[in-house]
Amino acid sequence: MWIKICGLSTPETLDAAVTAGADATGFVFAPGSPRLVDAAHARELVARVPEGVETVGVFRDQPLDDVLRLARAAGVRTVQLHGHEDPAYFEAVRRAGFPVIRAISADTFVRESQDHAGSFGEARLLLDAPDPGAGATFAESTLAGSPLPLGWILAGGLTPENVVRLTKTLAPSGVDVSSGVESSRGVKSPDAIRAFVSAARS
Ligand SMILES: O=C(O)c1ccccc1NCC(=O)[C@H](O)[C@H](O)COP(=O)(O)O
């Protein structure tokens, strides 16, 4: 199980995620997010991440030049796109050297994309609730009967309490959490991070 803790913004919570055994750390550059970090701060956080733990920059509907500038300045390895970016945009990000995680809602996937998984050139597909980073879940029945692409990642309202049940039911290759490991909106809890990683690994 690949585990990503998203929306990290302090050294303490970043270290908690790494020490707990997370596979990936996420840094949000989408304007308006309560977890927004700037490139200089993200770079300091990324510098603490050991080799072998993935660093992911999270973006939504931002100009391509901004995304590439921020991703390079922060030093993240991977770019995660949550907006309405088109295949040409994905191609430009890939050509700049960043593997891309394509994040879409599970509803959209079932309605439009299930026959086209991978058609944006994404490295991995992340299925989320409609409002990313809001801690909302999507109905498990949404994906019933849908063929799911190899390596897909589950997100949206995951918590230390529900991650075991949801991963057993939906069988993703990875999980991504933000709100479910926070003590208040935008404020990560080291204890909740540890509890989530431990549950997801179990
Ligand atoms: O975290 C945000 O504020 C955010 C803003 C804009 C685009 C994406 C954002 N976050 C993405 C994530 O944190 C996760 O990939 C995912 O949506 C899970 O979020 P949550 O339901 O809060 O666990």
Task: Give a written overview of the molecule.
It catalyses: N-(5-phospho-beta-D-ribosyl)anthranilate = 1-(2-carboxyphenylamino)-1-deoxy-D-ribulose 5-phosphate. Belongs to the TrpF family. A hairpin with a 2-residue loop joins β9 and β10. It contains 7 helices and 10 strands. α1 runs parallel beside α7 and α2 packs across α3. The termini are close together. The chain has 202 residues and is an alpha/beta fold. Strands 1-2-3-4-5-6-7-8 form an 8-stranded parallel barrel, surrounded by 6 helices. The mean pLDDT is 95. The protein is globular. The chain has a single domain, classed as Alpha-Beta Barrel (TIM Barrel). Bound molecules: the ligand O=C(O)c1ccccc1NCC(=O)[C@H](O)[C@H](O)COP(=O)(O)O. The ligand O=C(O)c1ccccc1NCC(=O)[C@H](O)[C@H](O)COP(=O)(O)O binds next to β8.
Structural domain count = 1
Q: Mean pLDDT, nearest integer? A: 95
Largest sheet, in brief, is: 8 strands, parallel, barrel
Instruction: Give the topology string: H per helix, E per strand.
Output: EHEHEHEHEHEEHEEEH
End-to-end separation in angstroms reads 10 Å
Strand order of the largest sheet: 1-2-3-4-5-6-7-8
User: What's the CATH architecture?
Assistant: Alpha-Beta Barrel
Q: How does the overall form come out from the CA principal axes?
A: globular
Under the CATH scheme, which class?
Alpha Beta
Number of strands: 10
What small molecules does this complex bind?
Answer: the ligand O=C(O)c1ccccc1NCC(=O)[C@H](O)[C@H](O)COP(=O)(O)O
Radius of gyration: 16 Å
Tally the helices: what do you get?
7
Catalytic activity: N-(5-phospho-beta-D-ribosyl)anthranilate = 1-(2-carboxyphenylamino)-1-deoxy-D-ribulose 5-phosphate
EC number: 5.3.1.24
Family: Belongs to the TrpF family.
Pathway: Amino-acid biosynthesis; L-tryptophan biosynthesis; L-tryptophan from chorismate: step 3/5
